[in-house]
Design a protein that fits this description.
By secondary structure, the chain is of the alpha/beta class. It has 13 helices and 21 strands. The structure holds flavin-adenine dinucleotide and adenosine monophosphate. The site of adenosine monophosphate has 16 residues, from helix 6 and strand 11.
């Protein structure tokens, strides 16, 4: 028996089964490596639920509720324009939540099946890295811990919500993302601390279902990493939908009194209080490394609590790697997955590379927001000479036909070489439209490349085409 064939000995052990960890595990097994994945997430049914934050309490359940609430909102507010009237509209929140839970279960069950199909050995419970690439596994079912030995270890432990001082999560009135994905009825007044991606998405869900939603944001504006044209446009659209923003507002504390949440805040006017039925804290996420590393593991953390890695995801210990939300870079599922794949390919002796400059960002509000590459403010700050083109969806036939005329596409290209430097979209299906722009940028394409490519008519993608034409001042369907 070779060493690697011994029970409890693996080529690769991955701690964490989110999009960073489970995708890495499947790819490792495809490459012929004897692979184990340890994940401690337990589903609502008490069964193992690999898939991490993304599948259980993040990307997927939020999108399920965003779609359900979008349909409800459209029937109530937009169908009349199409000549469709509905006499009495009701919503069954427990059924909506049950549908979301069903999707989560299907997908986490799918990961379990993929592990079986690819011969990834799955361990449900906690993993802890010891010295010498040994991993202690503590089963979730309470049976005694065992020791596993790895040739390489990948840490993919993800992230958890940040709490703020004097605002304590109680899972009922003061909640994080998981709580806001599980309300059993529509809160009359929902306070959201933080107008970032999660606050905007989950705030939109409950606003569309009838809640009065107030977002309390410390900054004077929102989405500072998005292009300024896009965030300003989005702010106007969200305000039209009834989302209320209090910018420049710092939350100092919150208390639950007689089933209401009293929030103390401070803004230019001084200190004041607001009352809500529920409060969602969405001020960001932090890397999760509790109990992950024994003191002698040798893995270093940064002063921000991230696992320290180099550009290739190597930690301070040879043979130990880390990917996803627990390391530097954007906290995005697709970034985690691609890092996981790149690490495993390096372990298998293959060349691997990720272009972090072309990782797309998406916010699934309505209209959606998506971008890739540099913003106009970044280019200005760096002194780059660029040209800009844009096109409003209000001048796109398909957008008008479907009633999705809000928003625009903005393209930024190098003034001398015409290479595309960034594309920013606010509008329907921005999440899908951005893919073409990512491909163009990966191939170092120019705005002229996109301008000369035939785009189907009538489609929303024609707005990308027109923005590319507009970089050169020759858009067809707008005054240039
Ligand atoms: P995670 O998904 O957090 O997975 C880590 C896993 O490791 C978890 O299951 C955890 O329980 C387990 N674990 C941790 N420590 C241990 C241990 N010691 N032993 C065993 N198991 C352990 N991103 C997008 O790209 N698109 C979106 O639309 C999107 N929407 C989001 C919506 C919400 C509400 C939230 C909260 C996040 C969203 N994200 C989205 C972010 C996305 O979920 C994360 O970037 C992604 O899940 C990170 O993947 P990961 O594998 O690094 O970590
Ligand atoms: P994101 O990083 O996209 O999850 O967004 C989190 C948002 O929360 C950012 O816009 C922060 O400015 C905001 N934020 C952080 N702390 C506070 C606070 N104490 N009060 C209000 N907003 C906050």
């Amino acid at each position: 028996m070779t060493e690697q064939n011994m029970p409890g000995t693996f080529d690769v052990i991955i701690i964490g089964g989110g999009p960073g960890g489970y995708v890495a595990a499947i790819r490792a097994a495809q490459l012929g490596l004897k692979t184990a994945c340890i994940d401690m997430f337990t589903g609502k049914d008490g069964k193992p639920a690999p898939g991490g934050t993304c599948l259980n309490v993040g990307c997927i359940p939020s999108k399920a509720l965003l779609d359900s609430s979008k349909y409800f909102h459209h029937v109530g507010h937009e169908f009349a324009d199409h000549g469709i009237s509905v006499k009495s509209l009701t919503v069954d929140i427990p059924k909506m939540i049950a549908r979301k839970d069903g999707i989560v279960k299907k997908l986490t069950g799918g990961v379990t099946q993929l592990f079986k199909g690819n011969r990834v050995e799955f361990f449900h419970g906690r993993g802890r890295l010891l010295a010498g690439k040994q991993v202690e596994f503590t089963p979730a079912d309470g049976t005694p811990a065992i020791s596993l030995q790895a040739g390489s270890v990948i840490l993919a432990s993800g992230s958890v919500p940040i709490a703020i001082p004097n605002v304590t999560f109680d899972g009922e009135f003061i909640v994080d993302n998981a709580g806001a994905l599980d309300f059993t009825s529509v809160p009359r007044r929902l306070g959201v601390i933080g107008a970032g991606v999660i606050g905007l998405e989950l705030g939109s869900v409950w606003s569309r279902l009838g809640a009065e939603v107030v977002l309390l944001e410390a900054l004077e504006g929102f989405l500072p990493t998005a292009d300024i044209t896009i965030s300003q446009h989005a702010a106007r659209e969200f305000a039209k939908q009834g989302l209320k923003f209090h910018f420049g507002t710092l939350v100092k504390g919150a208390n639950v009194v007689k089933k209401e949440v009293l929030v103390t805040l401070e803004d230019k006017q001084g200190e004041s209080q607001l009352t809500f039925d529920k409060l969602l804290v969405a001020v960001g996420r932090k890397p999760y490394t509790d109990g992950l590393l024994s003191p002698d593991s040798g893995v270093r953390l940064t002063d921000r609590g991230q696992i320290e890695v180099d550009g290739q995801s190597r930690t301070s210990v040879p043979g130990v790697w880390a990917v996803g939300d627990c390391v530097r870079g954007p906290m995005l599922a697709h970034k985690a997955s691609e890092e996981g794949i790149a690490v495993v390919e390096q372990i298998a002796g293959k060349p691997a590379h990720i272009c972090f400059d072309t990782v797309p960002w998406v916010i699934y509000t309505e209209p959606e927001i998506a971008w890739v590459g540099k913003t106009e403010q970044e280019l200005k700050k760096a002194g780059v000479n660029y040209r800009s083109g844009s096109f409003p969806f209000a001048a796109n036939g398909r957008a008008l036909a479907s009633g999705n005329s809000a928003g625009l596409v903005k393209m930024l290209a190098d003034a001398e070489t015409d290479e595309i430097l960034g594309v920013h979209i606010v509008g329907a299906s921005a999440s899908e439209l951005i893919a073409e722009c990512v491909v163009a940028m990966e191939f170092h394409g120019s705005s002229e490349d996109l301008a000369r490519i035939v785009h189907a008519h009538p489609t929303l993608s024609e707005a990308v085409h027109e923005a590319a034409l507009h970089v050169d001042g020759r858009a067809i369907h707008r005054g240039n």
